[in-house]
Amino acid sequence: MAACAVLAAGTACGTTHENSGASTGQPVAARTCHGPTGHYTIGMSQANVAEPYRQRMNDDIRKAAAAVPQFTVNFADAAQDNAKQVDQVTTFVTQQIDLLIISPNEATPLTAVVKQAYDKGIPVLVLDRKVDGDAYTEFIGADNVDIGRQAGQYFANVLLPQGGKIAELRGLAGSTPAKERSDGFDQGIAGHNIQIVAAQDGDWLQDKGEQQADAILKANPDIQAIYSQNDPMAEGARIAAANAGRPDLPITGIDGLPIEAGGIKAVQAGRISATFVYPTGGKEAIDAAEKLLLDCQTVPKTQTLSTQLVTKDNAAQVYDALNRG
Amino acid sequence: MSGQASGPAPTATLGAPVTRRRREFLPTVFKFQSLFGLVLVFAAAVVYSPTKNGQVLFLDSGNLFNVVRSISEIGILAVGMTLVILIGGIDLSVGSVLGLASVGSASLLVDNGFGVVPVVLIVLAIGLGFGVVQGVAIATFGIQAFIVTLAGMQIARGLARIFSGGQAIAITYGDGPGQAPVVFSLLGERTFGGLVPIPALIFIAVAAVAVVLLRVTSFSRHVYAIGGNEKAARLSGVPVMRVKIVVFGICGLLAALAGIVHAGQLNFGGPNDGTGYELDAIAAVVIGGTSLSGGRGSVAGTVAGALLVGVLRNILALRNIDSNIQLLIIGLVIVLAAGLQQFRPASVS
After folding, report:
1. Rounded to the nearest 10 degrees, how much is the dihedral formed by the CA atoms of A86, A91, A92, A95?
2. Using an 8 Å Cβ cutoff, are A279 and A256 in contact?
3. Contact B62 A112 (CB under 8 A)
4. B68, B172, B235, B298: which sits with the fewest CB atoms below 10 Å from its CB?
5. Alpha carbons B331 and B328: distance in angstroms, whole number
6. Does residue A109 sit at the B interface (CB-CB below 8 Å)?
7. Domain assignments of chain B as residue spans, ordered by start
8. Residue ranges per domain, chain A?
9. Would you state the CATH architecture of domain A22-136+280-304?
10. Residue A16 in 3-state DSSP?
C-alpha cells in the first residue's frame, strides 16, 4: 500500500542517473575538478561524533574548509551504526557531492557503498580507518603500530632504561587500534628487559581504565609504570594510582587531543607522564581536496601522518601549534 | 469493547452500509493517520527537496528506493513489534536478537562453512526459539513483557558476544574455505534493472503476509481481543497463552530475519549490530497509530509509519539538517503521533 505508492512514484519519475553515470575503474580525480572558479560540496561522513577524537576531526575539517571559499562541507553522523553510515553515503551520492570524506565505523560494511561513490567519479578520502580493497582516492591516517612502537621505545629509553615490570591498559577487545597499539608497543620494548606483568582491557574508557588499574595495582604492587593505549584510560589509571598511594607512578597515554579535556592538557597538568599525538587528518583531508578539486592534481594513495611525543616540556607548545591549525 | 470487536474487520466500520451515524471522514483519518502523515511528509519532501540541474533530488528513483531500503530492517522488526504491541506487550529484545542473528549468520557462513539455506533455517529457528521462550515466560509465569524482554535484550547481546568471541566477522564470498556462498550477497543487491533493493522486497513481503494474517484469520480476532481486554478474551474462550507465545515467537523470528538481511547487506556480522533498533521499531509502530495499551492498530499503519520516518530522515539529510536537530524532529513526530491517538474516537480500531 504505502510502500507501493513509493515504489510507483519511484518508477514513474524515471530519470535514473544510477545507470548512466556508473563507469567502473576509471581514473577519477579529474572528473569533478572544475578549477578554482568552481564551487564544491563536500560530504563528510563521520562514524560517531560522540567520541571526542571524532568531534575534533570534524572541527579540524570545518576549520580548514572555512579558509577555502569554494568549499561547502555537509556533515553526517552515523552514531556508531554501520547501516546508518551506508545510508548517509548513499544520500551524499544522491546530493551529487563533489568529494566524499569518510571516517568509517568499520571497514567491511562501508566498502561497497564507498566503491559505488568512487565508481561514480566522486573522489573519496578515507580517514583514520581504511575500507577494504582500493576503491578510494586517498587514505589519510596515522600508523597505530608505529605509535605503539614509539611508546615502547619511550619506556625503554626514558622511563625504564634499566628495564622493569609494567602494566598495560588495552582498548576495546577486538578493535583494530587496540591490537596495533599492543603489537607496536611489544616491538618497541623488545630486548630491553621490560616485562608486561599485567594487561587488561579498559575499553578506551576512563572509568573502566580506573577499575582495571585498581585491580592491577592490588595484584602487582611492584609495577613501575603503566602503558595505557589512550589518554582517558591513563587518566583513570592516575586516579587508581593515587588511591593506591603511588601518585608518582609513570603513566603514558595515546591520542593527545588538543582540547581542554584532552591528553595534552593532562600532560601539562602532570596527570599523564607523556602522550603521543594521534592526528585526526582533518586538515590534511581539506588540503587533499584542494589539490583534487581546485588544482586538478592527483594525490598519493596513502598519506601516513606522523605522531608526536608530548611531555611536560613541550605540552603547551604542541597544544598551541595544533590549535593554530 | 467496540474497538477491538471491529478490529479484525475494519471494512465494517468504514465502508459498509450498516454503519454509522458519525461522518466517516474523521475516523478514516484517525485509522490511517500514518498514511495521511506519510502523504503529507512526502509532499513536503518534494517541495523542500534540493534540486540539481532542474532535477528534484528527493524524487530521484535511486533515492526513493534508498529510502525503502534504509527502513527495511526496522520495518521487518516493526511488523513483529506491531503484533506484540497489539496484544498489549512490548519486545525490547529485537535489536539484540538482530545482532545475534547477524553475527550468527556471518559466523556460520564464514567460520563453519555452512550453506546459505541451512544458515537461514538455523538462524530463523534461533530467533523463533528465543521469541517463544520469552513468550512462555510472559504467558505462563505472568511476568511483564517489559521485564522479560529487557532481560532477553541483555541475554541475546551476551550470546552474540560470546558466540563471536567479541569479534565482528567480515563476510567474503567465494568457494574457498572461510568464504560464504556468493548467493548470500544477493541481500545487498538490487533487482528490476538495478533499482529495487532485495531487502525492500523482503520487507514488503513480510508486511503483506502480516496484513493478510491480521485480516482473514481467527488468529487476528484473538490478537485484537487479548489487547482489548485480556480477561474478557480468556473468558470468551480465546487461547490467550498460546496466542501470546505465537506472537512473541513471530516477533523473534522476524528479528532474526532482519538480522540475516543486516548481515547480507553489510557483508558483515557484528555482535553490537542492531543496538537501539528496538526503539526505532517501537517508534515506527507508534507513529503508525498502534496504541501501546494494545488492541488498536494495524500493520499497514506501521508500514506507513516506518516509511514516514524514512522519508523524513532522508529529506532532512538531503537538506543537510544537523544530525542533532534531526533527532529532535523525529522525537517531536513520535509525540505528535501518540498525541493524535488521544483524540481518536473509541470506535476506531
Report:
1. 170
2. no
3. no
4. B235
5. 5
6. yes
7. 35-43+59-342
8. 22-136+280-304, 144-278
9. 3-Layer(aba) Sandwich (3.40)
10. coil
Instruction: Give me the phi and psi of A58, to 5 degrees please.
Output: -60, -45
Q: B343: buried, middle or exposed (CB in 10 Å: 19+, 13-18, 0-12)? A: exposed
Give the residue among A108, A64, A56, A62 at the shortest CA–CA distance from A86: A108
Within 8 A of A91 by CB-CB distance, chain B residues are 63, 66, 314, 317-318
User: Is residue B83's pLDDT more than 80?
Assistant: yes
Q: Which of A65-69, B163-167, B321-325 shows the highest mean pLDDT?
A: A65-69
Of residues B38, B57, B265, nearest to A95 (C-beta): B57
What is the predicted pLDDT for the residue at A23? 39
Chain B CB contacts of A77 under 8 Å are 323
Distance between CA atoms of residues A33 and A297, nearest Å: 9
* pLDDT confidence bin for B176, thresholds 50/70/90: confident
Closest approach of A11 to chain B, Cα-based (Å): 6
C-alpha cell at A75: 556533515
Residue of chain A minimizing CA distance to B63: A94
Asked if domains A22-136+280-304 and A144-278 share a fold, the reply is yes
CA distance linking residue A274 with residue A276, whole number of Å: 7
Contact A10/B61, CB-based, under 8 Å?
yes
ipTM of the complex: 0.85
DSSP state of B64: H
Looking at domain B35-43+59-342, which CATH architecture does it have?
A: Orthogonal Bundle (1.10)
How far is CA A213 from each of CA A8, A134, A206, B96, B97, rounded to the nearest angstrom?
60, 40, 10, 31, 34
Quick check: pTM over 0.90? no
- The residues, any chain, with a CB within 8 Å of residue A172's CB and separated by 6 or more, are A178, A201, A203, A204
Distance, CA of A188 to CA of A150 (rounded, Å): 6
Strand-strand pairing, B51-52 and B55-56: antiparallel
Instruction: Write the pLDDT tens digit of every residue in A255-291.
Output: 999 999 999 999 999 999 999 999 999 999 999 999 9
User: Quick one: what percent of chain A has pLDDT higher than 90?
Assistant: 79
Q: What single-letter amino acid sits at A236?
A: G
